[in-house]
Design brief:
The chain has three helices and three strands. The protein is α+β, with helices and mostly antiparallel strands.
Length: about 70
């Protein structure tokens, strides 16, 4: 999400960068919203709650490493 800048990001676009579907990322997105790091300005979009947080993430995490997709247990 940080790679796309500070404006609200479409969930499907963020998922595509990570090689996932927006449904795969829904639990993580919900957790980040509950933590106060993201908010949803409109359906299907998310934005950082802190100004310039995208720049901070890019400095703190130089390379995006996406772990392999794991299957959830039922």
């Amino acid at each position: 999400m940080a790679e796309h800048g500070p404006e609200p990001q479409k969930a499907a676009d963020v998922a595509e960068v990570m090689g996932r579907t927006s449904q795969n990322l829904a639990p993580t997105r919900a957790e980040l919203i509950n933590m106060g790091l993201l908010y949803t300005p409109e359906h299907g979009y998310a934005a950082f709650t802190v100004p310039h947080f995208d720049k901070f993430i890019l400095r703190a995490i130089a390379e995006l490493v996406v772990p392999p997709l794991r299957r959830r247990r039922s």
